[in-house]
User: Fold these one by one.
Assistant:
Number 1:
Amino acid sequence: MNSTRRAPLLAPSFLAADLANLQAETERLANSAADWLHFDVMDGRFVPNISFGLPVLQAVARYAKQPIDVHLMIEEPQNYLAAFRDAGASSITVHYEACPHLHRVVQQIKQLGLRAGVALNPATPVSLLEDIAADLDVVLVMSVNPGFGGQAFIPNTLKKVAMLKELLLDTGSDALIEVDGGVNMSNVGPLVEAGADVLVAGNFVFSAPEGPVATLAAMRDHLAGLELSLSPSRAQ
Ligand SMILES: O=C(CO)[C@@H](O)[C@H](O)COP(=O)(O)O
Ligand SMILES: [Fe+2]
């Protein structure tokens, strides 16, 4: 483990929050160990589910204290980038599989002043990012098939994160590695050891009997106890 590691960031996913009480959910996360708020947008086309979109993001952003990390699981995301920025996004991640003109979309996100991310489905190899890695702020590795919360973590993700870490080093990219899907206390340690910088967690955080604030604090403590040599993150 090298000595320039960044402290991992925690990003609870609103998909698993109480959607009937979004103001309360956002306010209780404001004073938690959450570093980013993860916001999953699904269109019923790119993925077989529909979640929420612009007006809900606008509502959450009114109460959010942390940056909002928007994960677009939609076709033709290029048509909605400015609208998501205006609604409160700090970062936008689009799917590799949804973008034939990925380089252009990434530049558009950056021109809007946002952090630009690209997500990979479980069956999409990291090697496909070789020519664009240096342009990215975030690579999101899906550790479940996108579309639903509460699925089981795909174990091959650990190998994939390690391969991505190598690719980022080889291409001179300082992109953060974000992992999304089935993240819980038993896999955050191995994920961080493999190279993960941002850990998205939905059901594990919101369904815990202790509630999200205590669960995020426990995750933070667990990560701090892993005896990694970490330095403060640049990614707030
Ligand atoms: O993007 C997605 C699902 O497509 C995720 O962000 C989920 O919302 C994570 O939820 P859990 O798997 O942690 O319950
Ligand atoms: Fe997500």
Note: Strands lie at 5-6, 9-12, 37-42, 68-73, 91-95, 115-120, 138-142, 176-180, 198-201, 230-231.
Number 2:
Amino acid sequence: MEATPHSRPQDPAGEAPARVTVPDLQQMKDEGRRITMLTAYDWGMARLVDEAGVDVVLVGDSLGMVVLGYDATTPVTMDEMLHHAKAVRRGVRRALVVGDMPFLSYQVSREEAVRNAGRFLKEAGCGAVKVEGGGAVVETVRFMTAAGIPVMGHLGLTPQTAAATGGFRVRGRDLASARRLVADAADLEAAGAFALVLECVPAALARLVTERLRIPTIGIGAGPGCDGQVLVVNDVVGLFDRFRPSFVKRYAELAPTVRAAVGEYVADVREGRFPDEAHSFTGEPPWLADLRAELEAG
Ligand SMILES: Nc1nc(=O)c2c([nH]1)NC[C@@H]1CN(c3ccc(C(=O)N[C@@H](CCC(=O)O)C(=O)O)cc3)CN21
Ligand SMILES: CC(C)C(=O)C(=O)O
Ligand SMILES: [Mg+2]
């Protein structure tokens, strides 16, 4: 059985906005329309990203690095992911919302994987989940899709195991690892994955995988030959400056703008320029004299 994200309504319990059908990524690949994906971690940014017309909003476990201040994604918990996925879901009307399953939420057993993936769908209202890796993860993906959970794969640089496998570096540079990546990609497709993220791999390898798969590939540091592209939104708008991967293109520099705005605010308050009359509830209340007299009388 194949579980696709559009095969189910993406509706959480509660206060979700009315929505149209999520984009059909398979149809987009088949028609040669490129897929756009960005991360978001809260309601406000999710709304902006959705309104700008992105097809897929990923609640990435990069949360740990760009929002929570860890230097890796591995400490991120299911509860943290769900907390943010719920907020994101409330901000999205149109895009497919994908919950990134955190480290050790799907590796311990396939039962635990289904239970945790189910929480993204049932509690947060996500339309799909994403898991990292090939090899042993493939059977888990098969089990999850058989249970009706739409699963996105993720190969190449897989940050959850990066520390154990050579760091934040390009993958698939030699023939053996390229061969393994091609095989993992085919296995994930056969296991029912509906799309595949390719992170930090040579453009030629990503193109080859994209040509050989029926399901769409979504690249990050994987060149122009993929069916779509994903980036971390904080990188795109210049709100993250701890490091900048070479594949990131910055479309805005918000950090200096925020710093300057906050600096002006601080100076205004210190100098007594803000708040002023224009930002106060002005006018003399009719009872003011009475109140003063009353207080003075004790
Ligand atoms: N802000 C942010 N952006 C991301 O893209 C991102 C995260 N955080 N956190 C989770 C992972 C980690 N990622 C990273 C982080 C660093 C590089 C990096 O600096 N790579 C080098 C490659 C060097 C080499 O292979 O020799 C580069 O130059 O891009 C790559 C991916 C991608 N993901
Ligand atoms: C960079 C994307 C693919 C991701 O997994 C994340 O943001 O966690
Ligand atoms: Mg991730």
Note: The first helix runs from residue 25 to 30.
